[in-house]
Design goal:
Elements lengths: L8 E7 L7 H12 L3 E7 L5 H9 L4 E6 L13 E2 L1 H6 L4 E4 L5 E4 L2 H11 L8 E5 L3 H12 L4 E5 L3 H14 L5 E3 L9 E4 L23 E4 L8 H8 L4 E2 L2 H14 L11
Parallel strand pairs: 1-2, 1-3, 4-6, 7-8, 7-10, 8-9, 10-11, 11-12
Antiparallel strand pairs: 3-5, 5-6
Helix pairs in contact: 4-5, 4-8
Bound molecules: NADPH dihydro-nicotinamide-adenine-dinucleotide phosphate.
Length: 271
């Protein structure tokens, strides 16, 4: 077992509720594998106290950084000293690094993790047309990551149309050459079809799109990790479509978080 000493880097995860998070287990195991002297612990904080906690964390010299999840991903943006361009455009941050001078640097890795998970499965979205159901937090991050990955065209379909229009407008502003349109529940005519909504988490949820219209050449991908095979993926499989689970998004994101937070051992690097 590893010993925690006065040199151990401390990392946190900010969430409310927090009992269900799995990131500490996974990143602690990663640091142990890397031989890195660090530990991640839960920082359970309510929204009203977020600013107070973050101000204190800036003063904590042994802090390496923290992961941010529901419900703090949007509120944390303005509490960082700097955020990446894509995090600024998405309007959300899920990973924050503390620099030696106390500055907090925010990044949003949800979308990059999703695209990285596709790439790891041998699916390169470059030049492909993408249908995305949803316009919430996950869908926003995924939409930006797809455009950054060089897809040929994006169709966004969301129950609340205004949110899809708002996302399309922000994409067009950031990437004037991007082909973005608002769609219907019909995903026909796209190479990759993605569920970016929360529909499918619960038994009996309606499908997030019209699965009867799926054709066998379309790749159908999920953000939902549990259940692993959602009703949408089952319907897609029955139609003969290749399917892509939600899990690889998380696996890839953990790698990106570890890199961003400096959790990998650098030969000769001090604590
Ligand atoms: P949000 O609450 O921000 O967005 C929810 C989305 O689902 C919206 O587009 C919403 O539409 C839509 N939606 C919800 N209920 C319905 C309904 N009854 N009918 C039609 N549309 C509906 O959630 P997130 O974006 O943060 O999370 C979405 C999913 O992504 C979750 O299931 C989460 O588990 C998953 N996720 C997975 C990650 C991974 O690593 N695999 C990482 C992050 C999230 P509307 O705008 O109309 O409300």
């Amino acid at each position: 077992t590893r010993e925690i000493t006065g040199l151990t880097r401390v990392y946190g995860i900010l969430a409310d509720p927090i009992h269900h998070v799995k990131t500490p287990q996974m990143l602690n195991a990663l640091m142990a594998r890397e031989g890195r002297d660090g530990v991640m612990v839960p920082f359970h904080v309510a929204s009203d106290d977020l600013a107070t906690l973050v101000a204190g964390l800036k003063a904590m010299k042994s802090l390496g950084g923290f992961v941010v999840t529901v419900p703090h991903k949007t509120a944390i943006v303005d509490l960082c000293d700097a955020v990446s361009d894509s995090a600024r455009r998405i309007g959300a941050v899920n990973t924050v690094r503390r620099e030696a001078d106390g500055r907090l640097i925010g990044e949003m890795l949800d979308g990059k993790g999703f695209v990285g998970g596709l790439l790891a499965a041998g699916i390169d979205p470059k030049g492909k047309s993408v249908y995305l159901a949803g316009a919430g937090g996950a869908a926003n991050a995924i939409a930006f990551a797809f455009v950054e990955a060089g897809i040929s065209r994006l169709t966004i379909a969301n129950r609340t149309r205004a949110k899809a229009e708002d996302l399309a407008a922000r994409l067009a502003e950031a990437y004037p050459a991007a082909q973005v349109e608002i769609g219907t529940p019909d995903p026909s005519g796209h190479d990759i079809v993605v569920n970016g909504t929360s529909l499918g988490l619960k038994d009996g949820d309606p499908l997030p799109l019209d699965a009867a219209r799926l054709a066998p050449e379309q790749i159908v991908a999920e953000v939902i990790m549990q259940p692993e095979e959602t009703a949408l993926l089952a319907a897609a499989k029955a139609k003969g479509c290749p399917i892509h689970f939600g899990k690889p998004m998380l696996a890839c994101q953990l790698d990106l978080m570890a890199d961003f937070l400096g959790m990998r051992a650098l030969p000769g690097a001090g604590a």
